[in-house]
Design brief:
By secondary structure, the chain is an alpha/beta fold. It has two domains: 161 residues, Rossmann fold; 121 residues, N-(1-d-carboxylethyl)-l-norvaline Dehydrogenase, domain 2. 53% of the residues lie in helices and 13% in strands. The protein contains 13 helices and nine strands. It has a six-stranded parallel beta sheet, with helices on both faces. Helix 11 runs antiparallel to helix 12. It binds nicotinamide-adenine-dinucleotide. Pfam families: NAD_binding_11, NAD_binding_2. This is 2-hydroxy-3-oxopropionate reductase. Keywords: NAD, Oxidoreductase. It comes from Cloacibacillus porcorum. One of its GO terms (molecular function) is NAD binding.
Length: 298
Amino acid sequence: MSKIGFIGLGIMGVPMAKNLIAAGYSLVVYDIAEASVEKLVSAGAERGCSPADVAAKAGEVIITMLPNSPQVSEVVLGDNGIIHGCRGGQVVVDMSSIAPLVSRSLGGALAERGVEMLDAPVSGGQEKAEKGTLAIMVGGKSEVFERVKDILSKMGASVSLVGELGAGQITKLVNQMIVGINIAAVAEGMSLAKRCGVEPRRVFEAIRKGLAGSQCLEDKAPRMFEGRYDPGFRIALHIKDYWNVLETSRSIGSSAPLSAQVAEMMIALAGEGNDTLDHGALGLYYEKLNGVSLRERE
Ligand code: NAD
């Protein structure tokens, strides 16, 4: 198996890269944070000096798992970027959650060097990254997808090709819209129950198997009742995703009023210093708005 390049070793990148090593792949890795690189080197990976160096040392596939569009653009096109070390026939698989338009434009720049690109953002947090059970949504050419599918399947329980380059990011944005709005709906409903003197936990038990039931209700309502907002998925990351939702929807004149509203709620939470909490902390927003506590025990 040829060596895989892996750039971006944060909360998600470290366990994803470790799963590839556990599956028998050899890796060459890079991150601006030396401590993160060390974690992978001690697990058997080779150290790369820059994204260009990783591209030069990697075989067919180079994976990136970075915070957002500016970092992915820098890693691909910057002074020591992948573009300066890559060669024809390689594939860049960007698994970060970034703006779809940026994915498409990076894919265009790489194509001029004969390098293919897939966008392959993920759903599922650190725990699923560790277990290798992420949901991976991929955009790009189907023949390129077939070449990297086995590698992706070592990091995810589901690996779905959803369309052309950028379609993976669009799918991820849709996911984030639905999740954020759903959590806000849970918090809004539960705070009404509390204001009316009906115990939210009993409302939850009564409705969870009906049409209002959802993975968000199952995961986030108990957190609100326990006041447990450790991440999870951080508010700061969800705000970043909402920026990408609104930038995308506005650029094509598609209206997304609920997303704009929930983004504002998250911005208010972040403004109070809660940006590192789980996005279930929308419960705190509604507690303040309605003067109630959703907690069962103070
Ligand atoms: P993170 O901030 O923990 O990790 C990002 C890593 O990129 C860091 O190690 C950082 O040092 C590195 N980095 C930043 N700029 C760099 C550069 N120019 N060159 C090399 N390395 C650089 O983020 P994360 O939580 O691992 O998330 C990564 C992506 O996955 C994000 O787009 C996020 O939205 C998405 N995501 C995260 C989660 C989650 O629960 N954390 C879930 C699903 C998707």
